[in-house]
Amino acid sequence: MRSAELKPEITNLAKADLSSHSSIRPPHSALLVFEQVSKWYGQVLGLNQVTLELRGGITGLVGSNGAGKSTLMKLATGQIRPTLGRVTVAGVDAWHWEARRLVGYCPDVDAFYEDMTGREFVRTMADLCGYPSAESKRRTEATLDRVGMSDRADRKLRGYSKGMRQRIKLAQALLTDPSLLVLDEPLSGIDPVGRQELLDLFRSLAAQGMGLLVSSHELEELEKLTNHVAIMARGRVAAVGTLQKIREMLEDFPLSVRIDVERPKDVAKLLLSLDEVTGVDVAGDTVTVRAHSPKTFFRDFGRLVVRERLDVRRLEPLDDSAHAILGYLLGGSGKT
Ligand SMILES: Nc1ncnc2c1ncn2[C@@H]1O[C@H](COP(=O)(O)OP(=O)(O)OP(=O)(O)O)[C@@H](O)[C@H]1O
C-alpha cells in the first residue's frame, strides 16, 4: 500500500513543518501533544500510535469514514482516555479538568433539548460549567455575541437552521474561553452561505489567538479555511503539514493527466512508448494518460510535443486536487 511506503518521509515532514507553523506560543509550550497514542475499542483499533503536536492557528483534520478523526478529537478533549501513550493540552493531561477548561468542543451530532431557546441552552451549559449565576449570565451573553447569535437566541432550537445550530454549539464551546477549539465536522450539512459565514467566524476566532482543530471529510472545504492539515488514514496520522509540502512530497507519485489533442490515437501510441506511462485511454479528442512520476512525465511529454509538433489544446492533471492527494495517501480512488 502506498501510504505505508510514504510514512517515514511524511513523519519527517510533519516534524519539520510543524516547527515553522504560525505559532502563538513559545516552542516549549505546544497547545496539543499526542505522544505515541493508541486507542482500542475492545478489539477495534481506533487510533494507532499517533504522535502529533499542534502549536496554534487552524489545523484541518481530514480522512475518510472510520479514519480515526473523532477518536483523536475525543482524546484531545479528554472525553476518552488513550489505551497507550499520552495526550496533553498546554502540558496538562487532557483527561484532567484543568485541561478540559482549555479546550472547547463542538461535536458533530446535534443533541439539543429542542424546546429550549438558544439562550436557555447556552445558559444551561454555562451553569453546568459551575459558574456563579452572574458570571454564567455574563459568559452566555458574551459567547452568543461572539458567534453572532445574540439577536436570534430567543427562538426555540427546533426552529433553527443547521448553521444557527452550529453557532449555538460553538457558543457553548466558547464558554470557558478556551485556548483550543475542537470542531468535529462543523460544516457538514450546512448550505454554502452558512458555510461561508462559519468559515469567517472560525477565521476570526483564530485571529483572536485561539487554536482550532477542524475535521472534515472534504479536504477541499478545509483548504478554504487553512493550508495546514493533518491527514488521517486507518487510525494513523499519515501526513501533517502545509498542502504545498504534502504535494511536493507526492511529486514522485502516480498521476493521471487529461490531454485534448489532435490525432488522439496516434498520440496515445506515442505516449505508451514513454517508460513512465502505465496506461492510456482514448475518448473522442481526449487522451487520459496514467504515469508513474509526474516530474519525468511532464519533462518527456514536453519533448514529445516539440518533436512531434503536437497540437495540444488542453493539458490537465486530473489528480492535482486535494482529493487526489488524500487518495494517494489512502491508497484508494481519492474520493472521500
Ligand atoms: N465507541 C466505539 N466502539 C467501537 N468502535 C469504535 C467506537 N468509536 C469508533 N470506533 C471505531 O474506531 C475507528 C475510528 O472511528 P472514528 O469514529 O474515530 O473515525 P472517524 O474518522 O471520525 O469516522 P467518521 O468520519 O465516520 O466519523 C472505526 O473503525 C470505528 O468503527
Automatic annotation (TrEMBL):
Residues 32-259 form the ABC transporter domain. SUPFAM superfamilies: P-loop containing nucleoside triphosphate hydrolases (SSF52540). It comes from the Bacteria. The keyword ATP-binding applies. CDD domains: ABC_DR_subfamily_A. GO terms for molecular function: ATP binding; ATP hydrolysis activity. PROSITE patterns: ABC_TRANSPORTER_1, ABC_TRANSPORTER_2. Keywords: ATP-binding, Nucleotide-binding, Transport. InterPro entries: AAA+_ATPase, ABC_transporter-like_ATP-bd, ABC_transporter-like_CS, P-loop_NTPase. Belongs to the ABC transporter superfamily. PANTHER family: ABC TRANSPORTER RELATED, ABC TRANSPORTER, ATP-BINDING PROTEIN. This is ABC transporter ATP-binding protein.
